[in-house]
Amino acid sequence: MPRFPQRLLSRVLRHVWIALVAALAATTMLAACKTDSGSSAGAGGGGGQVVVNSDAGVDVYLRSCSRCHGSNREGAVDAPALDTVRISSLGDDALRMTISYGKGRMPAFGALTQTQVDALINYLRGLP
Ligand code: HEC
């Protein structure tokens, strides 16, 4: 076997290996986060809302987001409308980042639990 393809093969294998390890780490972290927020939402007692659906999402939206984005997500002078077109152009990661860390003149909502953020995203995406 000539040397070149062999080197190439080992490089490709190394990348595959790194990707696998990264994916595994991400899955483990995600699983840990899910369990964690689930139990803290229950223990925290904040209304005991642990069901991830858009009903809970509407609640969170009206409490935290509507004063700027409007009660029907129509937006206002300052804040953009959060209609389906805009929301579908953003991935879950981008939405989570914006909600947890803020963006531009939008404040961060780092105190929301994972469950609340999930529900909020379901609501914004128009999911049940
Ligand atoms: C104090 C007013 C204010 C509140 C409260 C607020 N936002 Fe915003 N939001 C903004 C502004 C201003 C922008 C535009 C930010 C920019 O691009 O500079 C924005 C942008 C966004 C965007 C678009 C980001 C993008 O990349 O296009 C999303 C999604 C969003 N907000 C979601 C939310 C959610 C969900 C909540 C409730 C948890 C919320 N906002 C609460 C003011 C607010």
Structure explained in plain terms:
The protein has 128 residues and is an all-alpha fold. The chain folds into 2 domains: 1-37; 54-125, Cytochrome c-like domain (Cytochrome Bc1 Complex, Chain D, domain 2, Orthogonal Bundle), CATH 1.10.760.10. It contains 5 helices and no strands. The N and C termini lie far apart (57 Å). Mean pLDDT is 78; it is low at 33-49.
Short description:
With 128 residues, the protein is mainly alpha-helical.
**Approximate strand percentage:** under 5%
**Order of H and E elements:** HHHHH
**Runs with pLDDT <50, length 5+?**
33-49
CATH architecture of the largest domain: Orthogonal Bundle
Output the CATH topology of the largest domain.
Cytochrome Bc1 Complex, Chain D, domain 2
Tally of individual domains: 2
Could you tell me the mean pLDDT? 78
Oligomerization? single chain
- Estimated structural class: mainly alpha
Please work out how many helical segments DSSP would assign. 5
The level 1 CATH classification of the largest domain is Mainly Alpha
Euclidean distance between termini CA atoms:
57 Å
- Ligand set: heme C
The backbone outline, from C-alpha atoms, is elongated
